[in-house]
Amino acid sequence: MTRPLVRFLGALGGVACALLVATPATAGPIYPAPDPDRFYAAPADLAAHRPGDVLGVRVLPPVAVFPGATVRLIKFRSTDSRGAPIAATTTIATPAGHRPGAPLLSYQHFINSLGTDCAVSHRLYGADLNLSVIMPALGTMLARGWSVALPDHLGPHFALGAGRLGGQITLDSVRAVKQVPELAVADSPAILAGYSGGGLATAWAAVLQPSYAPELRLAGAAIGGAPMNLVSMAEGLGHNPHPAFGLAMAAAIGLEREYPDRVQVSANLNPRGLAMRDAMANLCTNDILALGAGGSAHEFATGPAVFEQPEAWDVVKENSVELYDRVPEMPIFEWHSPTDPLVPINAIDNTNRRWCAAGVRLQTLQVPSFEHLSAAVAGTPAMLAWLEGRVRGEPAPVAC
């Protein structure tokens, strides 16, 4: 049997992508509708700013789950996968009675969406079940005096699947909040954390920091349930019906947005595929999952023939942390379920072994959970304890 025309990566709450046959493009990527709030738009002089420069600050309404906290939206300059300037955003909550210099946590939420309405600053004010998984832990850190930032690490085009982009945006978001005087975090110990797709952005931030933001001192990064090798995920999902196919399709759309000349999706979709693409173009995670549940790649591609598409595979490799030859220079805490059915465990284990061999101060934890999302909750207490130890300046444990 020949391979399917489309190879998708799928992960519930994580990252997915598609590789399609390279044919002359007859249709380009479909981008999200612009946010009607002009605050999110890039300024005309964007290119004159440096990565991390603040482009705007707005005070947002109070958030019920963060009692007493002041919430602000920060717009800043970042960089896309081609090295071009982009405008990005992060939402930061400052606790009541905040002490200048108290710790700063940048938490990369698993956004896994395609529409501008899915930005964290919007979802904080709606019924977002995915955010509710982490809100109690973030509220705990606020109660202890920490500032908590949640960057929109998918970028202005909501490029789901582009993990390297997420790492750059994460680093620039920390640069930005440290520049805002009223936040009083310029001298704060800063630390990163994230799970699943947010763990991918966190992992990329950790490995890119020495080259992309060498001046940025970070106390460490906690990475949970991250898809460390997108190639492995492509091989794992194949073309059979899958409950997370919606995220696979969404990530194909997202990667085409970020790499339109290298990952051609739209030109290789049949009418059903184009209809699904159009229906998904502005949806958030749960609606994407519902729309694509049980789907498979061959239903939406133009034909059964297949051959390797080197440019597309290169994109997948470039966004795979396991295949990146550099390692973090900061302490790392990594946790996952050894029975997670959606994230390739071998890729996590291989990455951990390589980082340990290179001298990374790495602590790993396997949590007893039989599926992907519950492992996020199971590992949270240990993650929080590790974060607190790092910002207190305690020596990072090594338990590879």
From TrEMBL:
Keywords: Signal
Matches recorded under Pfam families: LIP
Signal sequence region: 1-27
Membrane spanning stretches: none
UniProt superkingdom: Bacteria
Name under which the protein is recorded: Lipase family protein
PANTHER family documented for this protein: LIPASE 5, PTHR34853
